[in-house]
Design brief:
single chain, about 260 residues, 2 domains, globular
Length: about 260
């Protein structure tokens, strides 16, 4: 990203030394470069769910993403979800990250794939057009929409780690809350390899873990449901792990509970 620096105390002789041609070049730089900077730094507003929670957003390429995990306890039509305590394929439930209500404001809630889709037919479309549990005007991203995000980041030098276009976990992950045992060395370009360099994308993904008859991975991993189908019993999640440089795509039991990020229509 181009940054133009100005000094308000420029000496008059230096100003006079600038040729007319250089002045024209500077004008063109201002004319064409500054709008690009503004676009790159501008978010796409906020979104409010049925419960009144307001979410920050981030614009990445032509996609406008929630910058926070969903934490709604109702569908957009007002239908209430139930707090789950066991894995339930038929119920429409939510779960607290690591079983604690104190984590909800920061980490969001965990939902099963069935809950996330709200009975809609799964799709690979771009855009998915599947609202599911998301607020009005937003949708549950398809597998291909998540892949498009990761591709966009991977082909931007400022977002990938090293030369491998798949190394985008760091730019997506938050700088805080990720845990690694002090006796374990973080692999190069992994989330825990110098976390201060994480989150260049501003997606601020936190390690909310999952629920599958018990709670797993809080502080070390997180996954996000897609609107797509894997098989009769599984669906793809996009999965970040503290020791990985890449985002995995794993086919996961649909009854398991993971996080949700919504994408603007």
């Amino acid at each position: 990203m181009m940054k133009l620096l100005f000094n308000n105390k420029v000496h008059h002789s230096a100003v006079n030394a600038v040729s007319e041609r250089n002045r024209q070049i500077l004008f063109l730089l201002l004319l064409f470069a500054m709008p690009l900077v503004m676009v790159a730094q501008t978010d796409c507003g906020t979104v409010t769910d049925y419960d009144g929670h307001v979410y920050a957003t981030v614009q990445l390429g032509n996609q406008c993403w929630m910058r926070e995990n969903l934490r709604v306890t109702h569908y957009a039509d007002g239908t209430a979800l139930q707090l789950g305590t066991t894995t339930d394929a038929d119920g429409r439930c939510y779960y607290y990250p690591d079983g604690s209500a104190a984590h909800v404001e920061r980490y969001g809630l965990l939902y099963s794939w069935f809950t996330a889709l709200n009975g809609a037919k799964p799709t690979e479309d771009v855009p998915s057009g599947l609202q599911g549990i998301c607020p009005k005007g937003w949708h549950l991203p398809s597998n291909f929409e998540w892949m498009a995000l990761e591709d966009f980041l991977g082909y931007k030098e400022e977002h990938r780690c090293g030369t491998d276009v798949n190394n985008v976990a760091k730019t997506m992950a938050s700088q805080e809350d990720w845990y690694l045992d002090v006796m374990t060395k973080a692999p190069e370009c992994s989330i825990m390899d110098d976390p201060a360099k994480n989150n260049q994308s501003r997606l601020n993904i936190l390690p909310a873990g999952s629920f599958w008859n018990s709670y797993y991975g809080f502080g070390t991993n997180t996954g996000f449901w897609t609107a797509s189908d894997g098989s009769d019993v599984t669906s793809p999640i996009h999965y970040l792990v503290n020791t990985n440089a890449t985002v995995e795509i794993n086919c996961t039991p649909k009854e398991a509970a993971y996080s949700v990020r919504c994408l603007k229509d």
